[in-house]
Write a structure and sequence with these properties.
The chain is an alpha/beta fold. The protein has helices at about 15-30, 50-70, 80-85, 90-95, 110-120, 165-170, 175-190, 215-220, 240-250, 265-270, 280-290, 310-325, 340-345, 355-380, and strands at about 5-10, 30-35, 40-45, 75-80, 100, 125, 150, 155, 175, 195-200, 230, 255-260, 300-305, 330-335, 385-395, 400-405, 410-415, 425-430, 435-445. About 35% of the residues lie in helices and about 20% in strands. It binds iron/sulfur cluster (SF4).
Length: about 450
């Protein structure tokens, strides 16, 4: 009987992608990756340290797994990702039943480490690696073959004052276009017609080897059979008009842009070391509005509320930015101090518990208005026919299928067994909701 591995992922798309690759490596080592199991042979937790909460969740999870490991000492536990990188040996000291602790750059050696732990040797690898030796085309089987991620830039050099990423993912290094194109061709051959290029600050792609992001988009968009190309994440300070031109000119470049504003107050943006003002951010939005892509574009952002020194006026500026930018969605959170960062050096490492109710109120105000705006935007799509790439069953309602429009909007619909993940269907949007659309199938394309 095949051994079962459960892969749990916290955090960003970069982590989702890393988990896909580690899942593939586990499958090549004879494991079956399953969504959940009461008796797994392995649990791999891919962690996130961008905020404090996922880190607390990891501690709870490991405390629970201790009991399982006592009952089944052969079960292997691997902690990967950013918390693994940040904590290293401390993790094994605190949770000695953990078999492997690997940072993002050590994940490619997973098979080697499986051999070691099978011999009873625990492993810690939190070294940074400047090479891209990962087989990008390693991705899991048919249930995942609608969409693939390809990392094009590792690390980050931006040092936003609140962010731990530069410390856990290392310096920025780009891959070369030729190699990335080969990976994408390989993915298309395997049936993936939709690819997202990943980088923490993707517009800086190529600065370390005389290439540039626009050339990357141009080259990759020409891969035969690639129906959808998208990218994440764009830092406003490095966003250029040339990217808008790519949106206008490349037919398979999806009209979706994640442009993290983080705040709407110049005082707070400066304290965050974001490298742009609210005016500069809104100038980008104005450029987008006057471009051909605006009508189709889905614009999303990240927002941090309660950054140290934020006052009522700063919050008003944030709400004003929300109105003007007219986002389709915001990923908004209360500030959480992260170790090693400049913000901790300046403002301390303690959560501001006294002001927590105020921050929660601001967060709910922001999210409430965002929801209204998102619904308003989605309502424009009612009655419109859109092409949807099918991903599988809806998590909320297993009687329905789910997929995404080219702008990344989730569409839930009733479908039959002939519609499989990876196929495209034409859907008429029947009802808009703030975070998804409901529709009905008109026809299946492939
Ligand atoms: S751009 Fe800023 S927020 Fe994003 S990963 Fe880099 S340091 Fe962190």
């Amino acid at each position: 009987m095949m051994k079962k591995a459960v892969v749990l992922t916290f955090g960003c798309q970069m982590n989702e992608h890393d988990s896909q690759r580690m899942g593939s490596l586990l499958e090549s080592a004879g494991y079956k990756v399953v969504p959940c199991s009461t008796t797994p042979d392995m649990v791999l937790i891919n962690t996130c340290s961008v905020r404090g909460k996922p880190e607390q969740k990891l501690s709870q999870l490991l405390s629970n797994l201790k009991k399982d490991k006592n009952q089944n000492p052969n079960m292997k536990i691997i902690v990967a990702g950013c918390v693994a990188q940040q904590k290293g040996e401390d993790l094994i000291n605190k949770f000695p039943f953990v078999d492997v602790v690997i940072g993002p750059d050590g994940e490619e050696k997973l098979l080697e480490y499986l051999n070691q732990i099978n011999k009873g040797v625990s492993v810690i690898d939190i070294n940074f690696n400047n090479e891209f030796s990962y087989a990008e085309t390693l991705v899991m089987g048919p249930s995942h073959n609608s969409h693939a991620y390809v990392t094009v830039v590792k690390g980050c050099d931006s040092f936003c004052s609140y962010c731990i990423v530069p410390y856990v993912r290392g310096r920025e290094r780009s891959r070369i276009i030729k190699e990335i194109k080969e990976d994408v061709k390989g993915l298309v051959k395997k049936g993936f017609s939709s690819v997202t290029l990943l980088g923490q600050n993707i517009a800086r792609f190529g600065r370390d080897n005389n290439e540039d992001f626009q050339s990357l988009l141009n080259e990759i968009s020409q891969v035969d059979g690639l129906k959808r190309l998208s990218f994440l994440t764009s830092h406003p300070k490095d966003f250029s008009k040339k990217i808008i031109k790519c949106f206008e000119e490349l037919p398979n470049l999806c009209p979706m842009l994640h442009l993290p504003a983080q705040h709407g107050s110049n005082k707070i943006l400066k304290a965050m070391n974001r490298g742009y003002t609210r005016e500069q951010y809104l100038d980008i939005i104005a450029e987008l509005r006057s471009s051909k892509v605006w009508d189709k574009l889905s614009l999303t952002t990240d927002i941090i509320i309660g950054f140290p020194t934020e006052n009522d006026d700063d919050f008003k500026d944030l709400m004003d930015l929300l109105e003007r930018a007219y986002f389709d969605n915001s990923y908004s959170f209360i500030y959480s101090p992260r170790p090693k960062t400049k913000a901790v050096e300046l403002f301390g490492d303690k959560e501001d518990k006294a002001n927590r109710p105020l921050f929660t109120k601001r967060l709910l105000t922001y999210q409430g208005r965002q929801k209204e705006l998102a619904l308003e935007k989605n309502k424009r799509l009612e009655g419109v026919i859109l092409e949807v790439l099918v991903e599988g069953f809806s998590q909320k309602d297993h009687n329905k299928l789910t997929g995404r429009t080219s702008s990344g909007k989730v569409v839930n619909f009733v479908g039959d067994k002939n519609i499989f993940p990876g196929s495209y269907v034409m859907i008429k949007i029947i009802k808009a909701h703030p975070t998804y659309l409901s529709g009905e199938v008109l026809n299946v394309k492939s």
